[in-house]
Amino acid sequence: MAGVAGRLARLWCSGALSSPLQVTRFPALQLHLCGPAMRASQKDFENATNQVKLLKKDPGNEVKLKLYALYKQATEGPCNVPKPGVLDFINKAKWDAWNALGSLPKETARHNYVDLVSSLSASSESSIQVTPAADRKQPGSDALVVTSQDGITTITLNRPDKKNALTTQMYHDIMLALEAASKDDSAITVLTGNGDYYCSGNDLTNFTDIPPGGVEEKARSGAVLLRDFVDRFIDFPKPLVAVVNGPAVGISVTILGLFDIVYATDRATFHTPFSHLGQSPEGCSSYTFPKIMGPSKATEMLVFGKKLTAREACTQGLVTEVFPDSTFQKEVWVRLKAYSKLPPNAMRISKQVIRNTEKEKLHAINAEESNILRERWLSDECMNAVVSFLSKKAKL
Length: 396
Ligand SMILES: CCCCCC/C=C/C(=O)SCCNC(=O)CCNC(=O)[C@H](O)C(C)(C)COP(=O)(O)OP(=O)(O)OC[C@H]1O[C@@H](n2cnc3c(N)ncnc32)[C@H](O)[C@@H]1OP(=O)(O)O
What we know:
alpha/beta; mitochondrion; elongated; 9 strands; transit peptide; phosphoprotein
């Protein structure tokens, strides 16, 4: 903690504050701190010291340390008190932050303090209850809803009348939402569905939108999109939780192997009917499923299309915990809210420790699976299955 604060404060003084999170959360800071020496009056400073007590939102320890350091520098000048002992964590962190300001002039510290408080006041006023992160790019349609609350960013599939089948636009929007969530100030990210289904997988009408380059071109661009989409899940840096509110089909099941936690209602089922559709596994499931449940159980699912109940999926290790449908939402969100209060950096780092050793392998598997699917999509088996679904002759 002290190290982080110290480094931040040093970067701050040197004009190299470049973390994307800091830049997007405190644009005013980025503009003013390292710019030409503008002056804040003593009165502005006193107002700011009062304003800081009225902040609606706790700005977090790193920001509080910055405020402390700037206040001390503005009122007492450079740090010249003895360094606290290593076990006196809090005072040492404060000392480090102050000391890192070096010989920053009192007036500059005063000005930076005023600027920081004003950016905090603005951000605390704009994030009251359920709000999308201020700088989040909004999805291109209402088929995806993204909200941030209580340290949790929730991405909700919102096509209940189509069982939340994924359109091409939705793949793009989910990628955008994941990118924004990876940079916002939430601790945890959740994917869930609206309505009775979690997701019925790829929208099979995606196959009907044939570009001028024909079906080969369609298959090529589909494989690129699939690979990019799955890459985002492989690389996602924060704890990623699936709240499986109902049946799940196809790609919505296979990518579960890339989530950190999967909570499911006892109404959920897990179905990967790839052979029925003339297709092959994706989402790195050809690797994650055998690893999670052993090769023969994985084969039952991925090759023979066996549909698992939530309890079976939990026994196989694909699902973390199953909840009765009547209490599912309540129990899961209470649990997630508690988790979201844990130190976010520690959670990110622990996730990295657990997942990073496999990343390269997963990217290679994703590339291979996407290539194989590109060929499958051109096969008679696949085309017949899609035509059959579209002409309403077939259902899973
Ligand atoms: C970038 C590309 C990446 C591709 C990656 C590869 C991905 C692979 C997969 O995901 S494979 C799995 C594909 N999904 C399916 O095959 C499911 C097809 N749907 C069904 O079998 C059924 O609809 C059901 C079992 C999910 C639900 O049945 P039921 O409860 O009887 O509801 P309806 O069938 O009446 O469905 C209501 C409404 O939704 C439409 N719909 C449902 N799922 C899909 C879908 N996957 N694609 C397109 N449309 C779907 C269904 O047609 C109904 O529409 P309607 O009301 O008739 O207009």
